[in-house]
Amino acid sequence: MGDPRRPHLVVFTGAGISAESGIQTFRASDGLWADHPVEEVATPQAWQRDPGRVLRFYDQRRDQVRRARPNAAHKALAALEKHGFRVSIITQNIDDLHERAGSRHVLHLHGEILKARSSVDPRMHYPLPRGGIRLGDICDKGSQLRPDVVWFGESVPHFADACEIAAQADLLLVVGTSLAVMPAASLLEHAPLDAPCVLVDPEADALAPPGVARLGQTAGKGVPALVRHWRREGRLWLPETVVE
């Protein structure tokens, strides 16, 4: 992750940061999820019942991700890394907006929509630079390809890696997540006891658990503001705009 002597910011991002780039959140009342019950498109049982429907749904989501562009929050985090800070991003999001903004150390807890994987061997991944997945597209073992996403009811394969990264934080920044999705929400428990933690979200006052500082702003406004403070001072700290 780079020189251990440099300040290490660990960032945990959720759907809220991508929503500002036009990607609908799971709980939104409109958009792609609204007419698709979870049980019908995002579970292993749905895949067994009707893989064609599941593939069509994720093709829609993939098109949406390709049209989206990184916003000010994504860009600010990438700029902080270029400024000499160690920045490790753990994201619940399946889009590639952090990478397109320029961040180099991104761990996707719930998979990556611009990849396919084997339905029999989860270690076998295939990039999808264009197009989608069709019935009959197979892996090298002859099995149908599926979206490289973690469905409801499946384990989170990279959670242990995420815990290890969180344990190395000098400051933990949480952006655009309700901290309600487990096991990801328990990442805060793995950060060092002396590492400050701040939640950036318009609903931060209601969402932040005890001991977590709050910045009640959108990701596109709050994250760049924090990054400006840190770049100016050359260290990670909680400015007066943050409520402790």
TrEMBL record:
Any one GO cellular component localisation term in the record: cytoplasm
EC numbers, comma separated: 2.3.1.286
Name of the top EC class for this enzyme: transferase
Domain Deacetylase sirtuin-type: 1-233
GO molecular function: histone deacetylase activity, NAD-dependent; NAD+ binding; protein-malonyllysine demalonylase activity; protein-succinyllysine desuccinylase activity
Localisation: Cytoplasm
InterPro entries: DHS-like_NAD/FAD-binding_dom, NAD-dep_sirtuin_deacylases, Sirtuin, Sirtuin_cat_small_dom_sf, Sirtuin_class_III, Ssirtuin_cat_dom
Residues annotated to bind substrate: Y58, R61
Keyword Disulfide bond attached: no
Domain of life from the UniProt record: Bacteria
Residues annotated as binding NAD(+): 14-33, 92-95, 176-178, 219
Keyword Transferase: yes
Catalytic activity: N(6)-succinyl-L-lysyl-[protein] + NAD(+) + H2O = 2''-O-succinyl-ADP-D-ribose + nicotinamide + L-lysyl-[protein]; N(6)-acetyl-L-lysyl-[protein] + NAD(+) + H2O = 2''-O-acetyl-ADP-D-ribose + nicotinamide + L-lysyl-[protein]
Enzyme active site: H110
Location, primary (coarse class): cytoplasm
Keyword entries, A-Z: Cytoplasm, NAD, Transferase
HAMAP family: Sirtuin_ClassIII
Function: NAD-dependent lysine deacetylase and desuccinylase that specifically removes acetyl and succinyl groups on target proteins. Modulates the activities of several proteins which are inactive in their acylated form.
Family to which this protein belongs: Belongs to the sirtuin family. Class III subfamily.
Free-text note on domains in this protein's UniProt record: 2 residues (Tyr-58 and Arg-61) present in a large hydrophobic pocket are probably involved in substrate specificity. They are important for desuccinylation activity, but dispensable for deacetylation activity.
UniProt-recorded name of the protein: NAD-dependent protein deacylase
Organism encoding this protein: Halomonas ventosae
